[in-house]
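Structural prep section.
Before we set up the soaks we want a predicted structure of the protein with FSX in place, mainly to decide which crystallisation condition to try first. Input record follows.
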Amino acid sequence: MPETMPKELPVIWLQGAGCTGCSVSVLNSVSPSIKNVIVDEVVPGTHINVRFHPNIMAGSGDAIIKVLDDTQEQDKGGYVLVIEGAVPIAKDGKYCTVGEENGKAVPMVSRVKSLSANAVAVVALGTCASYGGISAASPNPANCRSVSEVLKTEGIATPVVNIPGCAPHPDWFVGTVASILLFGLPTAGDVDENGRPKAFYNSLIHDNCQRRAYYDENKFAKKLGDPGCLYELGCKGPVTYADCATRLWNNGANWCVGSGSPCLGCVEPGFPDMVSPMYEKIVEV
Ligand code: FSX
Ligand code: SF4
Ligand code: SF4
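Run finished without errors. Recording the tokens verbatim:
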């Protein structure tokens, strides 16, 4: 709805239990370039104002922590919260903190709760934020949780869009943000049962794979580097929904199976525990 499009959309980007791979991936956006996304107009007439991002913001110390508080008060209901990484909740969240208040470290989970409650929408970027991911893998000593779990437990009704992937493709993030700016928040029909936009996560890897003819002819690679289908080497393409095989990564250079690695199912809620051992054939269901 262009008439309701804001001229400037404030964005707060928090990082929790993750590896920063999600940020690194998005910062490698090629079309549009990341400069276009965060400095220019991501869609005509709208500029994204990234006010807080642990890796790329210039500010530091109390001044930048104040930006978090000011945004949630002054732009209540008018900013987007991006959360990268899972949310550790063990021991009152003390394993991950963001800034201080009155000289005391503030747990990330507290920031997630207050900033989510006042945001127009939350984007859970990466598999850790979307479903727990590697950060919540067994035995999960910090009790890492997905963003949706935390919001549900706290009764916070702000809409959450999941953009899983370990790491997520830059197009999945930039495309989703552009779509929100142009057409509003995704409706129930726009996302799948795992809260992922169907525009990017609707096709089975196995149905679009360049090695599919090998599978159909029972020609399986026996070791990495062999030609053939990677099914017996642990490929999770038959149970993974994403457009990697057709979109390709790194500006169209290649993708996991194309470069000889089995798909590890990194966009799925069960990653990594449910797809382990990673290099063993999936158990038939
Ligand atoms: Fe997780 Fe993001 Fe995997 Fe890493 O921070 S989705 S571990 S790529 O980068 O959260
Ligand atoms: Fe399917 Fe994986 Fe084989 Fe491709 S390599 S055909 S995705 S099992
Ligand atoms: Fe993740 Fe599989 Fe896509 Fe690779 S091919 S990025 S493991 S979903």
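Observations: The longest helix spans residues 61-74.
Flagged for discussion at group meeting.
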